[in-house]
Design brief:
There is one protein chain. The chain has eleven helices and nine strands. The chain is an alpha+beta fold. It has two domains: about 5-250, BirA Bifunctional Protein, domain 2; about 265-375. Strands 1, 2, 3, 4, 5, 6, 7, 8 and 9 form a nine-stranded mixed sheet that branches. Helix 2 links the parallel strand 1 and strand 2 (about 65-70). The longest helix is centred in the last third of the chain and has 37 residues, at about 350-385.
């Protein structure tokens, strides 16, 4: 029997395959030929050249596509590392479901299909959904009125709902679908005020970017000849609402890993779950980054990799100070629930474990050495006192 994770993932890809989209395999977490990114952080990254109309993009003959893209946001411009474990929805590693049009279908199809998938395939209740649109995008507003009450369409005038590639180049308005958890939503690192941004009552579950203009150097915008669609939906977030949770860490996907972590938890009368959450997130990031060739080092991607591992080790030390190295064992938990979608992590599990274990041993030696130095200092201070 498939788990919720696999069901939603397969349901999404098959839905858009039936709409004529070609299923494209997730690209590596290390962006190919793109020095502007530290890690792949969005579903559209591998299609950037295709969106720009450049030749030899690798997708020249494809006009519509869909994917489930593995992403990491840790380090660089998009860095959620320090928030992980303390909020309902921040992760270093996550998966982004997306469907894309390169000069083919546009707003009407993108909006209609998003709504169809969410309300029919996933059967999310319409009275829990809100939509945001860029305040001047009358076309999108009229299209949304066919599916949702006008009082649930919220106009946003800020850059939150207008995408730009840079100071110049392709750009366009956005539209987002939010899920309302209700007035009694559990607050954890967020707030209950406003609508967009960090808010634990409303969670964005779908984003549509309508690339229809070109931003010129003089600030004007000209319509693009070939309009594009770029959508994204966080898989972890969809699982959250499908399973009736308000916190991505409470889903079956993450809890299966947390349950395996608990066997190492030797604390007494300590209900702080932050260490469990951090480790569960970070072990997924470690597994997939190492699988894609990112090894711990003191430079660039390797430095971020080392930070992730050592952050996890520090929290693991809070759970169990006597066990020594054990984080590497948790790669099996990741393989167990995600290996069907990514069989390569099962094939490379032993090598992944060896990298994590080696880094654990190195860091714990450093930690022990530091503690010995600290104890010597304390002992000398005590002698001076006496």
């Amino acid at each position: 029997m498939q788990n919720t994770y696999q069901q939603i993932r397969d349901e999404f890809l098959n839905f858009f395959k039936n709409k004529g989209c070609e299923i494209i395999k997730s690209s590596s977490l290390v962006p190919a030929g793109d020095d502007s990114l530290l890690f792949t952080n969005a579903g559209m990254n591998q299609f950037k050249d295709r969106f720009a109309g450049l030749p030899n993009s690798g997708f020249d003959n494809i006009s519509r596509a869909c994917s489930c893209q593995k992403c990491v946001r840790a380090g660089g411009k998009h860095n959620d590392l320090d928030n992980v474990g303390y909020t309902n929805r921040h992760h270093t590693f996550f998966e982004m479901l997306g469907n894309f049009s390169f000069g083919d279908y546009f707003k009407e199809e993108a909006i209609t299909w998003a709504w169809e998938f969410i309300t029919k395939n996933l059967q999310l209740p319409k009275d829990k959904l809100y939509v945001t649109v860029y305040h001047t995008d009358d076309e999108a507003i009229e299209l949304w009125k066919k599916h949702i009450d006008e009082n649930r369409i919220i106009k946003i005038s800020t850059d939150d709902n207008f995408w730009t590639m840079g100071d110049t180049g392709p750009c366009g308005p956005c539209s987002e679908i939010f899920y309302d958890f209700g007035e009694n939503a559990k607050i954890r690192g967020g707030n209950m005020t406003g609508f967009v941004g960090e808010n634990d009552r409303y969670m964005e579950i779908w984003n549509l970017v309508f690339t229809q203009f070109e931003q010129m150097t003089d600030g004007t915008r000209k319509p693009l000849k070939a309009k594009n669609i770029d959508t994204g939906s966080g898989l972890e977030r969809l699982i959250t609402v499908i399973e009736g949770k308000t916190d991505t860490y409470e889903t079956s996907l993450i809890q299966s890993i947390i349950n395996d972590i608990k066997q190492y938890d030797k604390r007494k009368n300590d209900n702080n779950d932050v260490p469990l959450r951090v480790i569960a997130d970070h072990i997924r990031a470690m597994t997939f980054l190492i699988n894609d060739g990112v090894l711990p080092s003191n430079l660039g991607r390797g430095y971020v990799m080392r930070r992730i591992i050592r952050r996890a080790i520090r929290y693991a030390h809070q759970l169990n100070k006597e066990k020594g190295c054990w984080l590497y064992n948790l790669t099996s938990s990741v393989c167990k629930i995600m290996g069907q979608s990514y069989p390569e992590i099962i094939e490379n599990e032993k090598q992944i474990q060896e990298v994590i274990k080696r880094e654990e041993e190195l860091f714990l030696k450093t930690l022990d050495k530091g503690m010995n130095i600290l104890n010597d200092v304390i002992e000398k201070m005590e002698k001076i006192k006496n």
